Amino acid sequence: MKSIKIEKFGGPEVLTLKDAEIGKPGPKEVLIKNLSIGLNYIDVYHRTGLYPIPLPSGIGLESCGIIEEVGSDIKFFKIGDRVTHASMPIGAYSEKQIMPEEKLVIVPDGVSDEVASCITLKGITAEYLIHRAYPLKKGDIVLYHAAAGGLGQILCQWANSLGAEVIGTVGSKSKEEIAKKNGCHHVINYSEKDFVAEVEKIVGKNRIDVVYDGVGIKTFKGSIETLKIRGMMVAFGNASGYVDTIDVKKDINTKGLFFTRPSIAHYTVKREELVESAKKVFDALLTNKFKVKVSKKYSLKDVTQAHKDLEARLLTGPAVIIP
Ligand SMILES: NC(=O)c1ccc[n+]([C@@H]2O[C@H](COP(=O)([O-])OP(=O)(O)OC[C@H]3O[C@@H](n4cnc5c(N)ncnc54)[C@H](OP(=O)(O)O)[C@@H]3O)[C@@H](O)[C@H]2O)c1
Fold this sequence. Notes:
By secondary structure, the chain is α/β, with parallel strands linked by helices. It folds into two domains: 2-121 and 268-322, Quinone Oxidoreductase, Chain A, domain 1; 138-261, Rossmann fold. Helix content is 29%, strand content 25%. The structure holds NADP nicotinamide-adenine-dinucleotide phosphate.
């Protein structure tokens, strides 16, 4: 079977399409034929080594596929089940993969393969960010950076449906309309304007209840500036670079802020958490709390281009790889 491998950390060119042996699933594992694979910014961190992984390695954490073989001690699934996942072991950029059954959930009818492969990692992340990292309430004012991105479109629509007032930032003119159509009440082009000043014009100084910041180093300080006293800073990504130190006195103490740097792994520790979170995501999709439009499809042989596009900020929403 064909699979993308990396042998060293680096640019998109280190992604190599190889013939690989798939092997047999262990007792608590299943073999999945992937139908659609999610493209995520975390794949870039794995490829560059920002999040180090043992090499050589596969890449990719999200896919939807059909179970073709099951191990001898499988509890939850059978051959033919359509499943999705959003976690290690890494290697979703493959025609087939072997996964522990505890990491999988069934995809309900009414959710296409492509959509399932966009809303497991991104959807569960949106779920834990708005329901558990900082449980959004009606009337909360939210700032989300990169609102026209894959996760941004899902989170902003869902936050809007909960009654929050959503301010989204975007990096280009063409993304402004996309963010507006995907849940943002207000959109700021932070490539052209100082987003802190713009936020103040919209809602006033120190008014933001929660910032969900996946952009990182370029937005961190400004995000802190917009927060209200006792506001919540959720730093969950590093598209522009990793924030590895904070100044507690200046950044946190000045306004008595709350700060968290979560990962999806912290919110899907137990299988029950994964299953419950995925159920909330599918329910929200099927009751129109958010809609998903796949923005672009790549083949496995085009993943180098997919990573170039992602890093060049050219994608406008969730994208998939069709094996
Ligand atoms: N902690 C977690 O559990 C978790 C889980 C999933 C995702 N994430 C994080 O969530 C964020 C969004 O993920 P995603 O997969 O949906 O990606 P995405 O938002 O579709 O793509 C990243 C976006 O970041 C913005 N950006 C700003 N500065 C950038 C720069 N210097 N280089 C590249 N992009 C830049 C771009 O939007 P503009 O052009 O509009 O600025 C770009 O489109 C990522 O940081 C990801 O790591 C975290």
